[in-house]
Amino acid sequence: MDFLEETGAGTFQPVDKLSHPNLSKTPDLPFIPNRAASWWCTIEDLQWSQKAIIDKIKRRAAAFAEAKIDTAINFGFHVRFDFSNYFGQLHGYYANVCNELHRYGIKFMDHYSCNHVERPRGNAEFRALHKNNRHGVLLFDDPIAAAYAQYEGHFFKDICEVDVRDGSRGYSPTYQFEIFCHNNPSFLDMHTKYLQRLMREVPFDGIEVDDMCDYGGPTTCRCKYCQERFKKDYGHELPPFSDKTFFGDTSKSMLFWGNYENPVFRDWMRMKSDVVADHVKMIKSIIGPKPLMTCCSGTGPVILNVLALNLEKMAPYLDFFMLENGGININTVNWVHRDAEAMQQKDIADKRGNAVPLALCYSTYTAGGYLGWGLSRFWGVGSWNSTVTQNLEEDPADAMEIEDIVSPYNNWELRYSNLNYRDGKDLVEVRLVNNSFCRDNGWRGKDKLEHWDKARAWSARLVENNVGYRFVRAEELSDAAALSKENTPLILDSIGCVSDRQLKAIKSYLSKSGTAWLTLPFGTHDEKGFKRIAPLSDELIHGQYKNLLIIDANSKQDPLKKLISEGKFNPVLRQLSGDTRWAVRIRLHNNKPVIHFMNRALVAVPHPTAKINTGTPLLKDITSAITDNDLKYEVDTYKVPLSALSVASPELGGQQRMVSVLNTKNGHSTICINLDGIKAYAVAQ
After folding, report:
1. Which SUPFAM superfamilies does the protein's record reference (predicted)?
2. Which domains, ranges and CATH numbers included, belong to the chain?
């Protein structure tokens, strides 16, 4: 996950982190998750310390050990303050779990949502909650009791967000939550006291505090604390809901509310995510050296603003970074569009000082678990596998436990391919820019597409052409020295919002013969979203930089294929024969290449009857549409010197196949690889 630069000799070497101006010191972490799995709870576990519950804990801890799981992450009792009347037995249960897991050297992370309570409004919402969200373990107060629900003297009804529309308590119809205000000092006091108690009573090793966002959307919160902060920090009053110049077209889904042409609305979005980041900072100050993580299934789209979900703002206070990668349904096989988020979160973790990235994938059966495990290895991140116990209205009778799902892959890996993902250095041939200023300001081009849409499209092209890449984000794009540390091309596609500092850094990079591929528009607005008199692209184009390539945004031709065909970009790997739908990613371990293969032509086998709440079938199994598995590639050995390689895969068991290396000519070798009998993942090591 380190930066890679091409040295004068043409080989890629890791950049020294301590000399890099943009990287903080690596966190001193007490443990590193690699093969994590969810520890699922059900409502019967509140009957701890009955013998049956204690015996179940012992059996499951032993099964986790046999499955070579190194980190157990709690799942269940999720909406934590719904269980405030039962914290004694709940913490006793978790302490028992920790002690039993610790006997096997397995770490335990708690995982809960701190800022919600379940409060379904009416019979239809009540039934929807029990149909779609029972996996969190449901035990909430009825409407009469809810008026008196409290913890440490703080009544829940008094610390909720206030809705701009009618003054009601903030509510999420998706999850039937009422929402506590991240900015309310009484809520923060309550959460502080709970965390301090949790630390006293449960010897957990790390924690994921989930839902560090605002599911109430842009109309929350108008409590006195949020109004005072908006005035103090940004100098604005929060307008009424009737102000369409602020809230925009509210006939659409809440995710699309808001008028980004209004700078006051843009500041409202900024303040909401500021508040959440401050809450995360507070949590980290309480738990100290114990690793902290939060959930984040996305970092790029504009719609995340209305949810106040901004991982980049929270990053300074986090130790682990989790991408909620995929679900249990058949669409999980279409994984390429998720590559951008995976690589983006890897870069966020890397800039935190080589922090830990994890990919969470849900599954019900072995095939889904294998797919999630394989993707984590392809991406070069830790694996968190999870079932979703009681996610459906009725779980399939043959649904598997996660320890049974992952045991074959974990044990195979330890025996045949025990590569530490943190030791691997991604081969980086291009740098793909994703500038968060565009997202923050809700910028879209004339084609109505976001900057993230363009970045994700480039990610897919790079995957399809087996080109190694990493992301460059807003801070690094402002740093001329960091940009010039590498001479791999910068991809600048539709970056509407650009700061003066970023322009200066890019110009400095280009003046030193750096290469960039530019697709307009560029710099039509500044970092606060204000339109510029003239776009900054004028300065770049008039600078006549010899390595600045302008890509026609209106061309129907794949820009990457065009650059390759014209000889303007020479990838390390070129496929000569075989099905091109095997995606290839090269990672260096001790300066030796390890080549990962992931199938882009997976075919989902649906469960015959079971479906998620959207009507999409569960993933029962996977097959492959690939028929020609005799693969031949040309490798630029100036950039990646080859060593002896053999192919391994869980699907081959202990069998390994040698990779044939043909004669090297002009710094290029041809390698022949056979992936017959492999449906999803393989590694040449």
Report:
1. (Trans)glycosidases
2. 35-318 (3.20.20), 428-565 (3.40.50.880), 573-684 (2.60.40)
